[in-house]
Amino acid sequence: MSKVWFVTGSSRGLGRHFVEAALSRGDKVAASARNTGSLDDLVATYGGAVLPLSMDVTDRAAVFAAVTRAKEHFGRLDVIVNNAGYAQIGAVEELTEQELRDQMETNLFGAVWVVQAALPHLREQGSGHIVQLSSAAGLIAMPLGGAYHASKWALEGLNEALAREVAGFGVKVTIVEPGGFATRDGKNPDPLANGHMAEPNPAYAGLRRHLAEAAGKQPAGDPAAAARTLLKIVDSDAPPLRVLFGQGFYPLVQQAYADRLKTWDDHQDLAAEAHGAQTL
Q1: Are 190 and 183 spatial neighbours (Cβ–Cβ below 8 Å)?
Q2: Where are the domains of the chain?
Q3: What pLDDT tens digit does each residue of the chain (280 aa) get?
Q4: Catalytic residue among 134, 151, 172, 204, which?
């Protein structure tokens, strides 16, 4: 049975590949983007199966209107993909208030608006699947990514809570955590070239050089393969709450979690002391 998708950030990158994969197998897609001109070729190929929607996820009223239009147009919504987002690059000291607020407005609040707009329809149906694009950056943190990490770590907690809230309504939630994917001319996006950059402070020049040297060193995944994998996930009766897309970051995530557990274990005396308990 074909599904109806609502996908944000459909104009390029993984979002574009998700839309193409869904359409190519006969599903219908409400594809949102700030500029829908990039979707004209999909309309020419798939006709009424794709509904382009001009939408900025930071505009709550526009998000609700777009979701309502998609539901009215297709009659139902089955898969909601929160994909829109970007990376703000800069040391915490370098970030302006506006840069930090803009990062959270798009990556966090934009996702919340989509969920709030779609959930009443999914609850009424008694079914649906919310897919949140997080990142390996939602699990581990690197220098110069504080704003981006903050937005993705927030999404991780938000969607874990959401999954427990909506399970009783028949609604599933999956957090997808991609590593690097070849979404820019067959290469990993370079954060220094494609990200939003804070005004540099010379004190962090060394970290910027290190980031430039490390950029693109992780193996680049195939975005078309990622899209095929997402189809498998949304068709599953028991999809995972979290799934890493790509292999490059898995060892880093393993080490980060091992380090956290060890740190907590090594300092159980401080935990007990802070509680007021007597230590032996």
Answers
A1: no
A2: 4-248, 251-280
A3: 899 999 999 999 999 999 999 999 999 999 999 999 999 999 999 999 999 999 999 999 999 999 999 999 999 999 999 999 999 999 999 999 999 999 999 999 999 999 999 999 999 999 999 999 999 999 999 999 999 999 999 999 999 999 999 999 999 999 999 987 765 555 556 555 656 999 999 999 999 998 888 776 666 788 999 999 999 999 999 999 999 998 878 999 999 999 999 999 999 999 999 999 765 5
A4: 134
- Catalytic residue status for 257: no
CB atoms under 10 Å from CB of 270, counted, come to 11
148 is catalytic: yes
Q: Is 10 a catalytic residue?
A: no
Q: How far apart are CA 247 and CA 242, in angstroms?
A: 14
**Amino acid residing at 170:** G
Token couple for 118: 């779609």
Indicate the SS3 state at residue 199: coil
Residue ranges of E strands in the chain: 4-7, 28-33, 50-54, 79-82, 88-89, 128-133, 171-178, 196-197, 242-245
CATH superfamily of 4-248: NAD(P)-binding Rossmann-like Domain (3.40.50.720)
Which of 10, 28, 32, 148 is an active site residue?
Answer: 148
Question: Is 132 within 8 Å of 112 (Cβ atoms)?
Answer: no
Burial of 44 (0-12, 13-18, 19+ CB in 10 A): exposed
Rounded CA separation 43/74 (Å): 15
State pTM to two decimals: 0.92
Structure tokens at 87: 């990376």
Identify the active-site residue in 3, 152, 172, 204: 152
